């Protein structure tokens, strides 16, 4: 009986270690994605979008921040509001830095698209996480 309890406990410990490792990988993926997106947003573009309002550019912003918010919520599930506010500030910082570069243009509409991506991504991913069984949610 004691041996079964020891094996059961070591199995729980192993699961806990694996889940902590998975959480660490998600956090690393989130921060790498933030760095890559920031880099790609600030490198010189070969051409600027024509027209006053380019829908494809806005869709890219929305999708990028949707993905960042999804990773952020998976990495920091107990800090949904902080992730959302942090990403919104990050989007604003990128737009200011683009405006300062001289070869990119920072646009308020891009920041709005970032915000829409965050507003869709954070609640959606948070809702999906909350639907998981409590045992699986405890590691996040």
Which SSEs are present, and which pair or pack?
Blueprint: H1 2-42, H2 55-75, H3 80-101, H4 108-130, H5 134-137
Which keywords apply here?
mainly alpha
Structure, explained:
The chain has 140 residues and is mainly α. 79% of the residues lie in helices and 0% in strands. The protein has helices at residues 2-42, 55-75, 80-101, 108-130, 134-137. It has one domain (14-45, 54-137). It is built from five helices and no strands. It starts with a helix and ends with a helix. α2 (55-75) packs parallel to α4 (108-130).
Low-confidence stretches: none
Radius of gyration: 20 Å
Q: Main sheet?
A: none
* Strand/helix succession: HHHHH
Q: How much strand?
A: under 5%
Number of alpha- plus pi-helical segments:
5
Outline:
This protein has 140 residues and is an all-alpha fold.
């Amino acid at each position: 009986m004691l041996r079964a309890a020891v094996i059961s406990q070591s199995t729980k410990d192993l699961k806990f270690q694996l889940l902590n490792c998975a959480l660490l990988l998600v956090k690393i993926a989130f921060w790498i994605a933030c760095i890559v997106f920031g880099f790609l947003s600030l490198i010189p573009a070969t051409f600027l979008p024509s027209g006053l309002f380019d829908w494809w550019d806005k869709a890219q912003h929305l999708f990028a921040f949707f993905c960042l918010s999804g990773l952020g919520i998976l990495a920091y599930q107990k800090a949904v509001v902080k992730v959302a506010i942090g990403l919104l500030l990050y989007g604003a910082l990128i737009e200011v830095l683009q405006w300062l570069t001289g070869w990119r243009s920072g646009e308020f509409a891009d920041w709005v698209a970032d915000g829409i991506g965050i507003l869709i991504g954070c609640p959606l991913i948070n809702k999906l996480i909350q639907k998981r069984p409590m045992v699986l949610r405890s590691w996040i």
